[in-house]
Design brief:
single chain, Aminopeptidase, globular
Length: 241
């Protein structure tokens, strides 16, 4: 048995003693016992390992081929209608599911050359559901808010373009946007959800195929990102400092 497995069993035994004494606090006591022996990364890794063993890899059309397609759409839009006054980097990191390894690699290589005062990040993740969203904040243990000025700018662009953009949602997991946010950069995370569930369509299910992607929403994501780029080029960002 692995060391992590032994520590989990020890935590469970400790929690069992606690629940015998305080039956009404079973889940809270167990969670506290786990927190004592596991780091955040170990807990998530254990959970994801069990899920991965239980089923095959899903197609991933919405999560996150739609993000990659959006990046290509932005590239095409800027090639056809070049923008001046701003340098645009189109980055497809990969490996987001494995604790944002791709974005961590980009950060190690390139963050030192990208000044926080003049660099903005827009993360595009899973934009093939019914309506686009901009996350208010995200994080596993610590909820980190995205800059209000940037979210407001995106909302203004959406209104000007006639694009439905939902606000008010927070995310208890993590996307690549969290890495740039923690790095001190003004960042945004654009995603999508279905209206009734407030969840991405076919999220991590075998039904996450191209046939189930709403391509009109992907097109909206391209138009919205282009609009934000042009607003930033025109000086919409606040002055440094």
């Amino acid at each position: 048995m692995s060391t992590l497995g032994k520590r989990l069993i020890g935590a469970a035994k400790e929690a069992r003693v606690m629940t015998q004494q305080n039956g009404d606090e079973r889940y809270a006591e167990f969670e506290r016992a786990l927190t004592d022996v596991l780091t955040e990364r170990e807990y998530v890794l254990e959970r994801r390992t069990r899920l991965a063993r239980a089923r095959a890899v899903v197609p991933g059309a919405n999560d996150n081929l739609t993000g990659a397609v959006t990046v290509l759409g932005i590239a095409q839009a800027l090639a056809e209608r070049p923008v001046e006054g701003i340098r645009v980097l189109l980055v497809s990191t990969g490996s987001e599911e494995s604790f944002m390894e791709g974005m961590h690699g980009f950060a190690r290589r390139h963050f030192p050359a990208l000044p926080t005062a003049h660099t903005r990040f827009v993360c595009i993740d899973t934009v093939g559901s019914e309506q686009l969203i901009v996350l208010e904040s995200e994080g596993m243990l610590v909820m980190r808010p995205y800059p209000e000025w940037f979210k407001s700018l995106l909302a203004e662009c959406a209104e000007a373009e006639g694009i439905e953009l939902r606000r008010g949602l927070k995310f208890r997991n993590a996307t690549d946007g969290l890495i740039s946010l923690r790095g001190g950069y003004d960042s945004l995370m654009i995603g999508s959800v279905n209206r009734d569930t407030k969840l991405p369509a076919n999220y991590h299910w075998p039904t996450d195929t191209a046939d189930n992607v709403i391509f009109e929403t992907v097109d909206d994501a391209v138009r919205l990102c282009e609009a934000v780029i042009r607003r930033l080029a025109a000086g919409a960002a606040p002055a440094p400092g």
